Amino acid sequence: MSSHVSFAHVDTENAALVDEFLPVLKERLAGGVFIGGEEVDRLERRIARLHQVEHAVAVNSGTDALRLTFRALGIPRGTTGITVANTFVATVGALLSEGINPLLVDVGADENVDVAALEEAITPDTSVVVAVHLRGLPAEIAAVREICARRGVHLVEDCAQAVLASAGGVPVGAFGVAGCFSLHPLKNLGACGDAGVVVTNDDALAAELRLLRNHGLRDRDTVVRWGENSRLDALQASLLNVKLDHLEEWTRRRRDLAARYDELLADLPLVLPPRPEDRVHVYHRYSVMTEHRDALRAHLADAGVQTAVHYPIPIHRQPAARGGQLRIAGRGLAVTERQAGQILSLPLHPLMPERDLRATAREVRAFFESRPR
């Protein structure tokens, strides 16, 4: 049996940064500014610069990043928003919460939106396309942008798993009218609680988002919109600013570990994560595909290797979808459903020791070598 290989890494990551966290937390506690303030402003400037856009607007979650973006864009209730079914529930839930009717299209071999299926699905009723960059691999976002521009549809990028990912040298979030990021603790750049951010080059959109996240207040006493409370805590911003100092190094490490997995697993009957030449994958997850997923996962668990499945039940198969609010585009979701039965996420995180990666690869190999030919 191999030594225990953990899948999650939040405790390890945060423990490694305690000596950097404590001084900034003490400073925030002594300063008495807990909502907004310079740390939030600094975080926004740094994220905007990283993603080569004019504005970043911090909010309290990735879900609110999506919801408030739809509202700030003025997307009419009752219109159609196109997205995919192999995403976290927040993508579709945010559409529904703003009264936008989700239409689900299939994905390609890279698990991201099938561009041809998307083009076929757009109608005059379509108001927004939400392109998900799943697992840290950008979608074919330049093609998606061209379709949306030609058809007069807003493009919003769901970048929840893709901080620092890029396509054609352009960071995700800079293709659409807005890019929405989750900074949940499990993300590549994760707070110690919920957090999110919207990036955009649209001055008016950024201004509207800043109003909506703060009750619609123009100043302390003047409400100009009916907004809500979606402000980011200064404590969380302080911790995120510490982590931002390490993000590029962590991302290189993720990519190096993924390349090592690719080498060690290359000759096995597995579908490995794609590496398109024009897209930079940041490996929020290193997910493989096999028809023997459940048996492989059980073997790895017996060997002490933790794995996960993201996501085993597509959105249209969830109990909440039985009410008929979700529609499926004409091509159906055959690829989405096939992949849902085959995907398996192997352990990968920036602080992962090489020995854990080798142990995981060794057990994957042992599983396939033990099977009848």
UniProtKB/TrEMBL annotation:
InterPro entries: DegT/StrS_aminotransferase (IPR000653), PyrdxlP-dep_Trfase (IPR015424), PyrdxlP-dep_Trfase_major (IPR015421), PyrdxlP-dep_Trfase_small (IPR015422). This is Putative aminotransferase. Belongs to the DegT/DnrJ/EryC1 family. GO terms for biological process: polysaccharide biosynthetic process. Pfam families: DegT_DnrJ_EryC1. The active site is at K187. The keyword Oxidoreductase does not apply. Keywords: Aminotransferase, Pyridoxal phosphate, Transferase. One of its GO terms (molecular function) is transaminase activity. The modification N6-(pyridoxal phosphate)lysine is found at K187. The gene is aprL. It comes from Streptoalloteichus hindustanus. CDD domains: AHBA_syn.
